[in-house]
Specification:
The structure holds two protein chains of two kinds. By secondary structure, chain A is α/β, with parallel strands linked by helices. Chain A has helices spanning 13-24, 58-63, 74-80, 120-130, 145-148, 163-167, 187-192, 194-205; strands spanning 5-10, 40-43, 48-53, 69-73, 85-89, 95-102, 113-117, 134-138, 154-159, 170-179, 181-185. Chain A has eight helices and eleven strands. In chain A, the strands form two sheets. A six-stranded mixed sheet of chain A has the order 2-3-1-4-11-5. A five-stranded mixed sheet of chain A has the order 8-7-9-6-10. The longest helix of chain A has 12 residues, at 13-24. Chain B is an alpha/beta fold. Chain B has a domain at 310-363. Chain B has twelve helices and 15 strands. Chain B is elongated, with a radius of gyration of 26 Å. The chains are: A alpha/beta, B alpha/beta.
């Protein structure tokens, strides 16, 4: 009999969408959709166990082996670089990491660029690649306000439709990376549950 | 003296058995100083897992470091002798930053190094020792093997160089076929080269089947001979050819491997061939070695049903010391560990509770 497979899903709309894909692929656990205070949901017949985690924590659960596999955004994987396998692009939750500035702004190339972002590492790597001297201003939310109040020259943030940017008279001036949800796996779990994980990957790809 | 089960922590028990294992293949113990010259590490940062080193001044002003690594010292300590390889093992604490910026940690590490005229027998022997080390730790273990030379050649054949080469290695390490395909497309690689690279990710787990699918090149033949030489050993069923087992291109240049055991979420063994370091430190030939990360094994004992002692012996306050001692020693002789107390300690766990009274030792219900 197969061993249990523990899956960490990101809380929120993306997680619900991803769970639907898992259920369709033959790994359902209907309890997970019930209105309950329960934290872990099991389907003993299929030996699959799900739990919801904060999206930025999914990779931690997987890296530390509390979950065998999980679904994390590419942004999280780029920012935190967890030591996990990134097995599959689930092609859902598509968006991009972009640089945005006030509409029509002129960015003086001779001055250190002030960059407001939640994604410090991604921003540093991106500008290091361009050889541009920057000053990072780490923020935890409402990044769009930073250039409006002259806290920063630009922002590096996730852009989905661009509506929030437009409403605040900001525009995308560059794309850092295209993002989507990825299936990740703990390396040791993959070593011992390779067949189960491979079967799940095939079912998800169909 | 026989040490009863449960006294030694798993990592301590494993240390003893690994010492015997390495000694049985003629590896001699290497003991290094607690501190090393800071310059040794500062000049070879490319070969360290982290650039951060704990440095301090000695009484004469010399800059010293708490060793972040053992291999550099071993390579520097040996002398080249034609036809021979320096074969040593070590058990040392190293000091490195933990992941995710949690400060420095002391990590207990043991390992094997084979430096000098390293031939395919040496490669086979070290691979066997790595596999046998895993077997000494757990009955359920796998050793993933790859070859950096082979990976580098296939990446070069696809026309990926510089930054693209680094990204290709990262994609292979993450088993991300989608990332590798996207990179090859972006770089304008030929479809055949892209397919050849991506096929490395999907190689079958069985070494025989996987080796049959590798392109015909010297590195693949080397892998085949070394893995084939282990066919009749108990280690063979643990071997997996897994090209995602890649490391920093600058450090390892040939065979690389990483070992996992069931129940521990990270690698417990990592190693490979590191000829460039040997040459940089002025020695001839090559080298292969591995480290066993004993700190990772702490997880093996987690949760568990561990008891503080087999029995709690409660004795009355007026009991004579000799009487209590006699009861404790009597139980000890029967192989029962005992904690004698006048009252039950709050947060300790015992298999059973006994009570000492005038009529002797009895189960306390």
């Amino acid at each position: 009999m197969a061993e249990w497979l523990t899956v960490a899903l990101p809380k929120g709309r993306l997680g619900e969408k991803v769970y639907a894909r898992f259920a369709e692929a033959g790994y359902p656990c209907p309890e997970i959709l019930s209105d309950t205070r329960q934290l872990i949901f099991e389907n003993p017949e299929l030996k699959v166990r799900y739990f919801w985690a904060k999206p930025s924590d999914v990779s931690i659960y997987v890296e530390q082996g509390a979950a065998d596999i999980g679904v994390a955004g590419k942004d999280i994987l780029m920012e935190y670089r967890p030591d996990v396998y990134e097995l599959l692009d689930l092609k859902t939750g598509k968006c991009r990491m972009a640089v945005a500035a006030p509409e029509g702004a002129w960015l003086d190339p001779e001055r250190t660029l002030r960059v407001a972002t939640k994604f410090t590492r991604i921003a540093k790597d991106y500008y290091a690649g361009l050889g541009r001297d920057i000053e990072i201003i780490h923020l935890n939310g409402s990044i769009e306000i930073a250039p409006l109040l002259r806290l920063s020259d630009v922002i590096v943030d996730i852009v989905e439709t661009g509506t929030t940017l437009r409403e605040n008279h900001l525009e995308v001036i560059d794309t850092v990376a295209h993002l989507s949800a990825r299936l990740i796996a703990n390396k040791a779990s993959y070593a011992f549950k390779r067949e189960r994980i491979a079967a799940l990957m095939t079912a998800l790809e169909v | 003296m026989n040490i009863p089960d449960g006294i030694l922590k798993p990592e301590e028990r494993i240390l003893f058995s690994l010492r015997a294992l390495y000694g049985s293949y003629g590896y001699t113990p290497y003991k290094m100083r607690k501190f090393e010259s800071y310059d040794l590490y500062a000049g070879n940062k490319d070969f360290l897992s982290s650039e951060q080193i704990i440095a301090f001044s000695d009484t004469d002003g010399t800059l010293l470091a708490l060793k972040p690594d053992v291999t550099l010292s071993i390579v520097r300590s040996g002398r080249d002798e034609p036809g021979t390889a320096q074969k040593v093992y070590y058990q040392e604490n190293v000091y490195r930053p933990a992941r995710q910026g949690q400060g420095f940690r002391e990590i207990m590490q043991t390992g094997v190094e084979c430096i000098g005229e390293v031939d395919e027998y040496c490669l086979t022997e070290v691979l066997l020792l790595a596999a046998e080390s895993l077997r000494a730790i757990s009955g359920k273990a796998v050793l993933h093997i790859s070859h950096m030379g082979l990976v580098r050649r296939l990446i070069a054949a696809a026309g990926l160089t510089g930054e693209q080469e680094t990204r290709a290695v990262q994609a292979l390490a993450a088993r991300s076929e989608h990332e590798l395909t996207a990179l090859c497309r972006e770089a304008g690689c030929a479809d055949d080269d892209t397919a050849a690279l991506c096929s490395l990710i999907g190689l079958p787990a069985s070494p025989e089947e996987a080796l049959a699918k590798l392109p015909c090149m010297e590195e693949a033949s080397c892998l085949s001979r070394v893995i084939g030489a282990l066919r009749d050993t108990p280690a063979y069923p643990m071997l997996r050819l897994d090209i995602s087992t890649v490391n920093d291109l600058g450090y390892y240049n040939g065979l690389v491997f990483r070992g996992y055991i069931d129940g521990v979420p990270e690698r417990v063994i990592a190693g490979g061939q590191y000829d460039p370091l040997v040459r940089k430190l002025g020695r001839k030939g090559g080298a292969i070695g591995f480290a066993v990360y004993l700190d990772a094994l702490e997880r093996l004992q987690e949760g568990g049903d561990r008891l503080d002692a087999d029995a709690l012996l409660l004795y009355p306050p007026e009991a004579e010391p000799a009487e209590v001692l006699k009861a404790v020693r009597g139980l000890n002789v029967s192989g029962i560990s005992v904690c004698a107390q006048k009252a039950a300690p709050g947060r300790q766990r015992f298999g059973r509770t006994l009570r000492l009274s005038e009529s002797g030792v009895k189960d306390d219900g």
